[in-house]
Amino acid sequence: MAVLTEEQTMLRDAAKSWSQESSPVSSLRKLRDGGSKASFDAATWGEIGQQLGWAGVIVPEEYGGSAMGYLSLGLILEETGRTLVASPLLSTALVGATALMLGGNAAQKEEWLSKIATGEAVVTLAVDEGPHHAPDKTALEAAEDGGSQIGDGYTLNGKKTFVLDGEAADLLIVAARTGGKPGDTDGITLFLVAGDAPGVTRTHLSLTDSRGAAEITFKDVKVGAGDVLGAVGKGWDILEPTLDRARAGLAAEMLGSASQAFDITLDYLKTRVQFGQVIGTFQALQHRAAKMFTDLETTRSCVEAALSSIDDGSNDIRAMASLAKAKAGELLHLVSNEMVQMHGGIGMTDVHDAGLYMKRARVAEALFGSPSYHRDRYARLNGY
Which of 28, 42, 218, 279 is 20 to 30 Å from 234 at the Cα level? Predict the structure, then answer.
């Protein structure tokens, strides 16, 4: 496991304290039951971004961030994952900021990274177009406008789905095809599109984890040549590393959810009495708890290794990100299932939090690639 600096330890402890006191699981219930279609509570995001400064953890200091790195942001995501905090921390502070840092020009960085760092803007990546994660299968068309001057701009037509925090986003980073065919990595171009641009239609998608996503339709949406992020046709060079950092960050959040689900279950095993005995004394349940504990420790090593490899600029980031996401997906699936089963009847009710952890697990498993997607990718990256 990674050795944390004093600053990182303080950041983790502050995130733990805030999450438990200011945004416990009951906050997610309130969001779910409040009748709103919002994917997060605006006041909570304002506190995270503007007061706590977590939105700028990976943003360079010249744009108002703290430049503490991906491991530091991962520590925060782990703690917010423990209480299922619904916020655009992942979509904006990690994914959006990463894409802009990797591919943005000076003007784009100045405009958007400073807004991300202060929590003023919600930025998200619009990449997938079907029920499964397949970024290379981008089909949304970006046709070059045939104006009198070369590079007048582009017209976007197509659809993106399961866009995190898409309804609330001020800026959409859209993967579109300017060349090649779906399945090709060449020919993908990233565009910066205002969330309320003419021709953009956003439809709310209710996800099982009580958060929200959007299906976004682009109908003759005009973007200028200055809205291209990176080079035309070479968006994959930005998209893939952005997604890998997203996977590592999400894996950290999933690790936090699994850790909390395990802690709750372990406490129950120590107090629930059945047949005149505390159920934690039953050997079969002890074996299952031991399995979860060892998987938690293994996954923690994978997640922290992936985040550290990003900070260190290692050449194995792709493989480490896939390993972390695959392990985190398998872990959270196991622990959330065991949480329900070991709690018995109460675990099947909505009054208990077990169902909320299981539902979050199912969404997080699929987001940015399922365990099977990443097992296959990890194998291919290692020559199998």
Answer: 218
